[in-house]
Write a structure and sequence with these properties.
Cytochrome p450; three-stranded antiparallel β-sheet; alpha+beta; 51% helix
């Protein structure tokens, strides 16, 4: 999000003061005594000071405004009014209200060139419901049971190239492994074994085609956008061949991959899903899971390495569970402490630092004994990064403490406090798959190798990225376990 605002400013500033003033006077004026307080910039630069402050350090600004103005406040940025809801009480309506009141469609429309027409938030409401239901069906526990073996197989094969010891960038390694395992589970054996290289190269162009500029100008004539558009067309061609082979019963699939579910989608009017829409849904799933899973597995592994007592408890759990039962879906689900390590890594370093909705109807809420009315037309935001580091919700919030989720504490159960996977009507449907994928990968890796961080301190969160990953040295040394 930092880059988004900064790059936007780089476009606007050269247009001159007159243009900036025009944007300023386009800002709708607050009405009503219950409107949230308007944030004043700490910058001496008039009109665009808040935009500059937000662009320079958005999370610092969000935290600064929370401490100064309370849990609900509005930041005017150019022609946008951004109203923030911070803390469990203020965040409740964000997660409870439906799309008719708080809509994601307007704020995420910039993804249409990546996913294609008629997919996810470019689909009609009825078609979108069918698409989401099909995704949910593909991520049910009956399917997840089949995925553990696939993920384990990919991880073991991947580790064969490591040898007995060496040095790697753990973020790069886990990024590569994540897309391998995701392709096996989501796309199927035929894609993973014969077309993976082509799919991964096209995906990279799609991924690089989502830039900060894309948020405001998704069709700007940039090289990244040209490559993105070409990659999506090529991806449709590639998957159309796979789809045709599958429908002719010539494709190689065991029927457990999500592509096999998408092929059978029929909308409520009886229309069969198109090849382009199937491809778009696969791209959307890969986008949703690739960044978040590789970032989460990286942070979780680094936090475990950096805390010897945590590592000891993780390894004891592994041995206790796997000493008397085979590795599989049930045993991975029993890894509660590893699960809590992952939860805590997500709390401290959530991949998405801001979640957004467009306000379609006035929203009334109460927080900290004060009633507010957020007017129609605002963009309303919550910040997992800031809210999940409030000491009032998570004591000693800046410290990695997996035990906070265990019996006697269970701090995550306070409503709307823990939101690493969203919440309410828009809770991430892929969270069960994400936990299973990351836990399976880490279980295999940690049981095979001992690790040590090369740097003497943890990386920091890279808020200059569209999805927040680690910024700093992620180099680790590894050595084959002999015990």
């Amino acid at each position: 999000m930092i880059d988004t605002i900064t790059e936007y400013l780089h476009i606007l500033v050269p247009l001159g003061v007159a243009s900036i003033l025009a944007f300023y006077f386009l800002i709708p004026k607050r009405v009503g005594k219950d409107a949230p307080p308007i944030v004043k910039s700490t910058s001496s630069i008039p009109i665009i000071g808040t935009a500059l402050e937000f662009g320079a350090s958005p999370m610092n600004m969000v935290r600064r405004c929370y401490e100064q103005y309370g849990p609900v406040y509005t930041v005017p940025i150019l022609n946008n009014r951004m109203t923030f809801l911070i803390g469990p009480e203020a965040q409740e309506p964000f997660f409870k209200l439906n799309d008719d009141v708080l809509s994601p469609q307007e704020v995420y429309s910039f993804m249409k060139p990546v996913f294609g027409p008629g997919v996810v938030y470019d689909a009609t409401k009825k078609n979108r419901q069918v698409q989401f239901q099909s995704m949910a069906n593909g991520l049910r526990s009956s399917r997840l049971r089949c995925y553990v073996g696939k993920i384990e197989k990919e991880t073991v094969a991947f580790l064969k190239g490591w040898g007995n010891e060496g040095t790697i960038d753990i973020f790069d390694a886990l990024s590569e492994l994540t897309i391998l395992t995701a392709s096996r589970c989501l796309h199927g054996d035929d894609v993973r074994e014969t077309l993976f290289r082509e799919v991964s190269e096209l995906y990279a162009d799609l991924d690089h085609g989502v830039t900060p500029l894309s948020v405001f100008f998704p069709n700007a004539p940039t090289q990244a956008h040209f490559k993105r558009n070409r990659a999506r067309k090529e991806m449709v061609k590639l998957f159309s061949k796979i789809i045709a082979a599958r429908r002719a019963n010539k494709g190689k699939s065991d029927g457990t991959d999500i592509l096999s579910i998408f092929l059978d989608i029929r909308y409520k009017d009886g229309t069969l899903i198109t090849d382009e829409e199937v491809t778009g849904l696969l791209i959307a799933l890969l986008f949703a899971g690739q960044h978040t899973s590789c970032i989460t597995s990286t942070w979780t592994s680094l936090f475990i390495m950096n805390n010897p007592h945590v590592l000891e408890k993780v390894m004891k759990e592994q041995s206790d569970i796997l000493d008397d039962k085979p590795f599989g879906y049930d045993s991975v689900n029993e890894m509660k402490y590893l699960h809590d390590c992952m939860r805590e890594a997500l709390r401290l370093c959530p991949p998405l630092c801001l979640l957004m909705r467009h306000v379609k109807k006035d929203v009334k809420l109460t927080a900290n004994h004060t009633t507010y009315v957020i007017p129609k037309g605002d963009t309303v935001l919550v910040s997992p990064t800031v809210s999940m580091r409030l000491d009032s919700t998570f004591p000693d919030a800046d410290t990695f403490i997996p035990e906070r989720y265990g019996p006697g504490r269970e701090e995550h159960k306070q409503p709307y406090a823990y939101m690493a996977f969203g919440g309410g009507v828009h809770s991430c449907m892929g969270q069960a798959f994400g936990f299973l994928q990351v836990k399976t990968i880490l279980s295999v890796i940690l049981r095979q190798y001992e690790f040590k961080m090369v740097a003497d301190k943890m990386p920091i969160c890279d808020f200059e990225a569209m999805v927040v990953g680690p910024k700093g040295d992620c180099t680790v040394t590894y050595k084959k376990r002999t015990d």
